[in-house]
Design goal:
The complex is a heterodimer. By secondary structure, chain A is mainly alpha-helical. Chain A is 59% helix and 1% strand. In chain A, strand 3 and strand 4 (589-590) form a beta hairpin. The longest helix of chain A has 35 residues, at 285-319. The two termini of chain A are 30 Å apart. In chain B, helix 1 (2-21) runs antiparallel to helix 2 (35-66). The chains are: A mainly alpha, B alpha+beta. Chains A and B meet through helix 4, strand 1, helix 9, helix 10 and helix 11 of A and helix 1, helix 2, helix 3, helix 4 and strand 7 of B.
Chain lengths: 603, 280
């Protein structure tokens, strides 16, 4: 670190061939873009699936001739079958959580900007970095394969939700459609994804700890770096548990083991031990839930921490103010990360686990609201007394704060084991986690995209299109996910392909249609964003080195940065990352690289 | 732009609050002994949540309204924060959040950390894809033995052992029939995958896990017929794994338990038709 961190980073020369430059690249910037492109492709699939689901929920029994043509098995004569709907649920959740919310924030933006922001010329292990992307990409190809080889013509994937609870997921075809080959592919895809994420996490941690440039002490790092670092630690500790669990589940399915399958089952008219149903005995279905959620809860922080980092970074930049309570923000990120490992049981209050452990999990879960609230207070503190510039990046960052509050706060309800008795597995849970883990995280990534696109491609995104994108999306997501909370109070259960069977759900029908219409409008608006990306790549306004007058290291190099990030002149750092509006300074911001004394009035 | 954003945030906040305060879509009327305490805990929580939500959104709107860059060249307030404020809001939120969590435990404890009260009425529940079986002990109040090896659908859904004398007067039907104002203990099992017992007005839910016999208890306080749903994804027809819970006056229920198996089944069928669902 002391010599400017010339480690393994620049061991490789700029490649010349197309393959080494753009496909099997070792450059963290190219790899970051590859992750983002992967996420952009995955989110298109996940979003399309959500629209199909909303169509089925709002207008059950309607004939959609186009569906009949596209999915002759899943929607015979244009009407969706229940198993087709449930396979959509599973694929939507899996693709969004793993291949969008885990790839873009960390693998994408983290990969691109962590090395630059700490003044490194590349990641610590460029080859490992390349492998982590391609392994992740292989995982995506396997999950797409599950669409085409689901094992039942009426489904386009397995049936299990993104949580794949055993023994439904462990029994195989005998448990019904959606439990055949598609489930094997699902498990294999997730296992591959775990490996890719582990490789990435090792790289992030090593790079951040060892490759900071001269003067870049830990407490001078942008909050984005703290967020990516903590996320990497969470990934390192949680993904191996899912990987192990996934392997055990696969063994139950294909090798006759009984980790999650108890004895004495009677499934689809067949007793366990019959030649059609190989003998299982002694497994525990709840064990899978423990393994899954030990990973699954940290995973929600893996999804949102980078968004929090980007939001802090962008709020300070466009409020022209230092981040309020930088230290408190760092502690809060760490507190969220650590506490995040001790709350997984709140997904299992009514699973049949010991009711005494629910008491512990409940109290720790509400405690995790404290650092989350501290972050919110500090974001508001950062805005207080600012001179706010309403760029698209800033609008989405402000939207993040609003949505994080709206979505996070219902955690105070759902985290209480007693209130979970009526709320568990109802739509209030959907509203809660979609707002906070889904939409807030995505808003963090939208903010990051509008903010860093000029650095990545040398051109700015179109601000008018961006603002249109913001207004509709911001109002749209409120209209989609807030009504889901009251649906949950009425008692609407998740993962129902139709709400036609129960009298107590009938009164919700207008609300269901309202949500679907809002969802379709919001989804369509995202194509404006896609268009903006492509159009601005070629026609966008040219950006200089530092279009936002920002302070951190990515803004001292060219847009886009050269292969080794700083053209051989690795900068030294003299101050913290958010020195905006320093009294007496010539400009309203001081770069981290401005030498000491630059802030004084008469230098 | 700042003003527009502030106004939009405030409008969304007001509409969100109205959606809850109007109670147009709300919990069904409660029918269990633990529900008043649970609802009270919910109301305390939702009021705190509502105040925090509104305060944060109003504050956010106010910040973007007030501190937009007017372009007059003036600079932002230069501050790195305040340790006093950090300590203050950390302590306040910690006290409120953890108090809420501790208060919420009393309902939980009454239902889950204590055994069913003496004199509870027992029913065994055996779920399967995509149906409910309720096993009643009959006059002797003793459950016959059951074994998956003896399952013979559709004659014997739960594998009840006819050779066990206790099973002679047992009934297995697809609806749950219980007395009002008397504690009920359910023993929950599943034949195949995980299901979840869910009666919304009861404010009660519990998974049925294959390989486990989970004992839970509650007391229903209002006579009537209620829809019973599965709340854990169990396969393609999860959405119509439906049954009813019938809560009967004590006398009517006692009479029912004295009937022979055939009479019991016929009477339950008759009662299910007689009682209407609560108006929605």
């Amino acid at each position: 670190m002391s010599d400017g961190s010339h480690g393994a980073g620049h061991a490789h020369q700029p490649p010349t061939g197309f393959i080494r430059k753009y496909v099997f690249s070792l450059d963290h910037k190219v790899i970051g873009i590859q992750y983002i492109v992967l996420a952009l492709a995955a989110v298109l699939v996940g979003m399309t699936m959500s629209v199909l689901m909303r169509m089925n929920l709002s207008w059950p029994g309607t004939n959609w001739p186009i569906l009949g043509t596209l999915f002759p098995g899943g929607a015979p004569a244009g009407q969706m079958t229940p198993e087709f709907y449930l396979s959509l649920v599973t694929m939507h959740g899996t693709i969004m959580v793993f291949f969008v919310l885990t790839t873009a924030p960390q693998g994408g933006f983290g990969n691109y900007f962590l090395p630059i922001q700490i003044g490194a010329e590349d990641m610590a292990f460029p080859v490992l970095n390349m492998m982590s992307f391609w392994v992740t990409c292989a995982g995506f190809i396997v999950i797409l394969a599950a669409i085409f080889f689901s094992g039942a013509p009426s489904t386009i994937g397995p049936i299990g939700g993104w949580t794949a609870y055993a023994p439904l997921s462990a029994l195989g075809k005998i448990a019904g459609p959606g439990q055949g080959m598609g489930m094997n592919l699902w498990i294999i895809s997730i296992a591959i994804f775990c490996v890719g994420s582990l490789l990435g996490a090792l790289n992030f941690i090593t790079t951040l700890l060892n490759m900071r440039t001269r003067g870049m002490s830990l407490m001078r790092m942008p909050l984005t770096c703290w967020a990516w670092f903590t996320t990497a630690v969470l990934a390192l500790l949680s993904f191996p548990v899912l990987l192990g669990g996934g392997i055990l589940l696969l063994l139950d399915r294909v090798a006759g083991t009984s980790f999650f399958i108890p004895g004495g089952l009677y499934v689809s008219g067949v007793l366990n031990g019959d030649p059609r149903f190989p003998l299982h005995t002694g497994g525990s279905p709840i064990l899978w839930q423990h393994l899954f959620w030990f990973f699954g809860h940290p995973e929600v922080y893996i999804a949102i921490l980078p968004g929090m980092g980007a939001t802090s970074h962008i709020l300070a930049t466009f409020a022209r103010k230092p981040v309020f309570g930088y230290r408190a923000m760092v502690f809060a990120i760490f507190a969220i990360g650590m506490l995040g490992f001790f709350v997984w049981g709140h997904h299992m209050f009514i699973s049949g686990m010991s009711p005494y452990s629910a008491v512990t999990f409940s109290i720790i879960t509400l405690s995790i609201g404290v650092p989350s609230a501290v972050k919110t207070f500090n974001w508001l503190g950062t805005l207080w007394g600012g001179r706010i510039r309403f760029t698209c990046a800033m609008l989405f960052a402000l939207g993040f704060v609003s949505l994080f509050v709206a979505g996070g706060i219902s955690g105070l309800i759902l985290g209480q084991s007693s209130l979970d008795l009526p709320m568990h597995d109802t739509y209030i849970v959907l509203g809660h986690f979609h707002l906070v883990m889904g939409v807030a995280s995505i808003f963090g990534m939208f903010a990051a995209t509008y903010f860093w696109f000029p650095k990545m491609f040398g051109r700015c995104l179109n601000e008018s299109l961006g603002k249109f994108h913001f207004w509709i999306t911001f109002v749209g997501v409120y209209c989609i996910f807030v009504p889901m909370h009251v649906m949950g109070l009425v008692g609407m259960p998740r993962r129902y392909s139709q709400f036609t069977e129960y009298e107590f759900l009938k009164s919700l029908h207008p609300l269901v249609i309202f949500v679907s219409v809002a969802a379709i409008i919001t989804v369509l608006t995202q194509f404006v964003f896609y268009f903006n990306l492509v159009w601005s790549l070629f026609k966008g306004k040219r950006a200089g080195e530092n279009p936002w007058e920002a302070t951190s290291l990515e803004w001292v190099t060219t847009s886009p940065p050269p292969h080794d990030n700083f053209a051989g002149n690795v900068p030294s750092v003299y101050r913290g990352p958010y020195e905006y509006s320093v009294p007496g300074a010539a400009k309203d911001y001081l770069m981290q690289t401005d030498p000491e004394g630059a802030g004084q009035p008469a230098h | 732009m700042g003003r527009a954003l502030a106004v939009i945030i405030w409008i969304l906040t007001i509409l969100s609050v109205i959606l809850f305060v109007s109670k147009k879509w709300w919990f069904p009327e409660a029918i269990s002994a633990h529900a008043p305490a649970l609802d009270r805990q919910f109301m305390i929580t939702i009021v705190i949540v509502g105040i925090a939500f509104t305060a944060a959104q109003v504050g956010l709107g106010w910040m973007v309204w007030k501190y937009r860059d007017s372009g007059d060249g003036s600079r932002a307030t230069y501050t790195h924060g305040s340790n006093k404020l950090e300590v203050l809001w950390t302590v306040i939120t910690a006290v409120i959040f953890i108090s809420l969590a501790v208060m919420g435990q009393s309902v939980w404890a009454s239902l889950r950390l204590h055994e069913a009260p003496a004199g509870a009425y027992h029913v065994e529940v055996v779920a399967q894809q995509f149906a409910w079986n309720f096993h009643y002990p009959g006059k002797d109040e003793l459950f016959g033995r059951s074994d998956p090896k003896l399952i013979d659908e559709p004659n014997n859904y739960i594998g009840l052992d006819d050779s066990d004398p206790n099973s002679k007067d047992d009934s297995v039907i697809a609806a749950l029939v219980i007395p009002v104002n008397r504690p009920v203990e359910l023993t929950l099992r599943s034949k195949d995958v995980i299901h979840s017992f869910w009666v919304p007005p009861l404010r009660f839910k519990q998974d049925l896990v294959p390989g486990m016999a989970i004992k839970v208890h509650f007391t229903a306080t209002k006579v009537g017929k209620y829809e019973l749903a599965c709340a854990e994804l169990c396969g393609q027809n999860h959405f119509k794994m439906k049954s009813y819970m019938l809560v009967l006056p004590e006398e009517e229920h006692r009479a029912l338990t004295q009937l022979s198996q055939e009479q019991f089944q016929a009477k339950v069928k008759e009662l299910l038709e007689k009682y209407p669902l609560p108006s929605q």
